[in-house]
TrEMBL record, chain A:
It is found in: Mitochondrion; Plastid, Chloroplast. The gene is GATB. Belongs to the GatB/GatE family. GatB subfamily. Allows the formation of correctly charged Asn-tRNA(Asn) or Gln-tRNA(Gln) through the transamidation of misacylated Asp-tRNA(Asn) or Glu-tRNA(Gln) in organisms which lack either or both of asparaginyl-tRNA or glutaminyl-tRNA synthetases. The reaction takes place in the presence of glutamine and ATP through an activated phospho-Asp-tRNA(Asn) or phospho-Glu-tRNA(Gln). SMART domains: GatB_Yqey. The keyword Cytoplasm does not apply. InterPro entries: Asn/Gln-tRNA_amidoTrfase_suB/E, Asn/Gln-tRNA_Trfase_suB/E_cat, Asn/Gln_amidotransferase, Asn/Gln_tRNA_amidoTrase-B-like, GatB, GatB_C_1, GatB_Yqey_C_2, Gln-tRNA_amidoTrfase_suB_CS. Its EC number is 6.3.5.-. Its main location: mitochondrion. This is Glutamyl-tRNA(Gln) amidotransferase subunit B, chloroplastic/mitochondrial. Heterotrimer of A, B and C subunits. NCBIfam families: gatB (TIGR00133), PRK05477.1-2 (NF004012), PRK05477.1-4 (NF004014). Residues 389-536 form the Asn/Gln amidotransferase domain. Gene3D superfamilies: 1.10.10.410, GatB domain, N-terminal subdomain.
Automatic annotation (TrEMBL), chain B:
InterPro entries: Asp/Glu-ADT_sf_sub_c, GatC. It holds the Pfam family GatC. It comes from the Eukaryota. Its main location: mitochondrion. It is found in: Mitochondrion; Plastid, Chloroplast. It is an enzyme of class 6 (ligase). Allows the formation of correctly charged Gln-tRNA(Gln) through the transamidation of misacylated Glu-tRNA(Gln) in chloroplasts and mitochondria. The reaction takes place in the presence of glutamine and ATP through an activated gamma-phospho-Glu-tRNA(Gln). It comes from Sphagnum jensenii. The gene is GATC. This is Glutamyl-tRNA(Gln) amidotransferase subunit C, chloroplastic/mitochondrial.
Length: 538, 126
């Protein structure tokens, strides 16, 4: 970690990881402005109940990220979505006697990458443990996981809240990151009812697929903050290329813990777990509903009715419903996995991995901000690493930043959405877009013409120059030519000229339209207006 | 994994027991056998549970000798066995297991390509 300068914020025991970094970055500020900065960075949302009492929600999130490796965590079975049930199985992942696990080196690599991206402390030596329980989708009767010595701990993640929800920056602590394996898939015939079929079906293709579990500090205070935390984590794993982070597909799963307490009280309230949220917006709605439910109960003196339990989010009725009692902590009889040696990393390996990391979302957002873009634009451009890379290449050619941003977020985005393509799938190169923008800037074509020819660049990969020449679309900026056009239009429309000179100045638009029609839209609009006005007003 | 037929020779234990009674070892609680059997899905009769209690208790006491050692300044060992220098990781290259048919053939009941199991609604039964 950075060497830290003398700073008030660090005098507290256990300074927050976010503060350590902000100290290193901002310690040349006076202490007054520094503490103000820190205060702004921390969330301070409270829920005000009907009687005016203020409550605070305490939210923690456990996320399971399915890694996009070619093989499973502990065997060489292909890790593939959508295969025929039980096609990718072997004695190891089926848990047959005598089979031994061997760790996939990519799992370690991805684990270190995520740990570094979350600014956490990496354990150069960590181990695996057996988490023991019985369930039909768990072939061995235990899950290989990491219990007390995980690969990483004590990190943080930077989040920028969307502008339309008030914006703001947050920094949430990460308790730990660890490696583990996924269980198989259990399909209940006849639905989840007790009646109906008495059997279920198991597909072990997913058993043994590598997971990274990320546990956050309970520092989120609203459904919005929780949803944005999850979105940023998704953005991070996609930027790193370690997972597609798809909540709908199940490659990223979030379980949320929510409790409430009167504002200012140090003790936590009863913790309720919420499962079954399939999107960020579902997470936000579920958490806000649950906060409301708990605050209402607390406020009516019925706080004892809040049980430590697991509740399911019901998308249809938009509410959480009780699933079962959590009955205190489960006893998984953890013990060190005897079949796996410790995971040993060298500092060189960690440093080399750090050097290979791409520019992370938060760093990109700060850089785009420094370019003068609005926060709104920054959030859109930095959301997808391919779009950001495209943008970086365009401005790398010296193109005007705001113009590049507008073209990418506007016309280009709209076309991609319509064609259902990704930015990497078009024939338009960043260089071609840069050229188009420059041609508009130097007056060769108008912005309108630029928009007209963009689809050709996207579909056929022609350059702007080629498209302009092919269609003869270059802008007319010769004053003499424009003057003769204007003279002709004035001569042809004496009535409108008289009306204009009589006071109907709005008719200027009519004349502009006429000249544009005659010239195929190619006249330089600014020059046209100047010449037109001088001729009409003489 | 443990088998249910566990028989311990009691003969040599008594002398060790006498020696231990004077040591300052902190007591390690023996496990609740009935509880452990339920957790590990072992079926012992109540008679067997009573039979095994003292035997397991004596094994725990024997290991409890380790409590005498002062490890206040010793960092916990992560794992037994030194594998330094040996690469224990596997490259991420897929290979299909050749005898899948034999494995699936040993499954008691199949439903199409799925493994048929009794319906259990309560998750994480530990």
């Amino acid at each position: 970690m950075q060497t830290v300068m003398m700073c008030q914020a660090l005098e507290s025991p256990n300074p927050h990881p976010c503060n350590l970094l902000t100290c290193a970055l901002y310690c040349d500020l006076s202490s007054a402005s520094h503490s103000l900065f820190l205060k702004e960075s921390q969330s301070s949302s409270s829920v005000v109940a009907d009687n005016g009492l203020e409550y605070e929600a305490v939210i923690g999130i456990e996320t399971h990220v399915q890694l996009g490796t070619a093989t499973k965590a502990f065997c060489s079975c292909p890790s593939q979505y959508g295969a025929e049930p039980n096609a990718h199985v072997c004695p190891v992942c089926m848990g047959l006697p005598g089979a031994l696990p061997v760790l996939n080196d990519k799992v370690v690599e991805y684990g270190v990458k995520l740990a570094l991206a979350l600014h956490s402390e990496i354990a150069l030596t960590s181990k695996f443990d057996r988490k023991q329980y019985f369930y039909p989708d768990l072939p061995k009767g235990y899950q290989i996981s990491q219990y007390d010595v995980p690969i990483a701990s004590k990190g943080f993640i930077d989040v920028d809240l969307p502008v339309e929800f008030g914006g703001g920056h947050r920094c949430f602590g990460i308790t730990r990151v660890h490696m583990e394996e996924d269980a198989g898939k259990l399909v209940h015939a006849g639905g989840e009812r007790l009646s109906g079929s008495s059997s279920s079906q198991v597909d072990l293709n997913r058993a043994g697929v590598p997971l990274l579990e990320v546990v956050s500090e309970p520092e989120m205070r609203t459904g919005l903050e929780a949803a944005e935390y999850a979105a940023e984590l998704q953005r991070l794993v996609r930027y790193l290329g370690i997972s597609n982070g798809n909540m709908q597909e199940g490659s990223m799963r979030c379980d949320v813990n929510v409790s409430v307490r009167p504002k200012g009280r140090p003790q936590f309230g009863t913790k309720v777990e919420i499962k079954n949220m399939n999107s960020f917006s579902a997470m936000q709605r579920a958490i806000d509903f649950e906060i409301d439910r708990q605050v209402t109960l607390e406020n009516e003196g019925l706080g004892h009715q809040i049980k430590q339990e697991t509740r399911l989010w019901e998308e249809g009725s938009q509410r959480t419903i009780s699933m079962r009692s959590k009955e205190g902590l489960a006893d998984y009889r953890y013990f060190p996995e005897p079949d796996l040696p410790e995971v040993t990393l060298t500092q060189d390996y960690v440093d080399a991995t750090q050097a290979m990391l791409p520019e992370l979302p938060n760093a990109k957002r700060r850089r785009y901000e420094s370019l003068g873009l609005s926060m709104q634009d920054v959030l859109v451009l930095a959301n997808d690493s391919d779009v950001a890379a495209f943008f970086d290449e365009v401005i790398g050619k010296g193109t005007d930043v705001k113009q590049a941003a507008n073209w990418i977020m506007g016309d280009l985005s709209a076309w991609l959405k319509n064609e259902k393509l990704a930015i990497t799938e078009t024939k338009l190169t960043p260089a071609a877009l840069a050229e188009l923008i420059d041609l508009i800037k130097d007056g060769t074509i108008s912005g309108k013409i630029g928009k007209e020819i963009l689809p050709e660049l996207l579909q056929n990969g022609v350059s702007a120059r080629e498209a302009i020449e092919a269609k003869g679309l270059s802008q007319i900026s010769d004053a003499a030519v424009i003057e003769s056009m204007v003279d002709a239009i004035i001569a042809e429309n004496p009535k409108q000229v008289a009306a204009y000179r009589g006071g109907k100045t709005k008719l200027q638009g009519f004349f502009v339209g006429q000249v544009m029609k005659v010239s195929g839209g190619r006249v330089n609009p600014a020059l046209l207006n100047k010449i037109l006005l001088s001729k009409l007003n003489c | 994994m443990l088998t249910t037929s566990l028989r311990i020779s009691v003969a040599g234990m008594s002398t060790k027991r006498a020696a231990m009674s004077t040591c300052m070892a902190s007591k390690v609680e023996p496990p609740n056998i009935a509880h452990l059997c339920e957790k590990a899905r072992l079926s012992l009769t109540p008679q067997e549970v009573e039979e095994f209690k003292p035997q397991i208790g004596r094994i725990v006491d024997w290991f409890a000798q380790l409590q005498e050692i002062d490890v206040a300044d010793v960092a916990p060992a992560i794992h037994v066995g030194d594998v330094n220098g040996i690469n224990t990781l596997r490259p991420d290259k897929p290979s299909v297991f050749q005898n899948r048919k034999a494995m699936m053939g040993a499954v008691p009941e199949l439903e199409g390509s799925f493994i048929k199991v009794p319906k259990i609604l309560k998750e994480n039964q530990e």
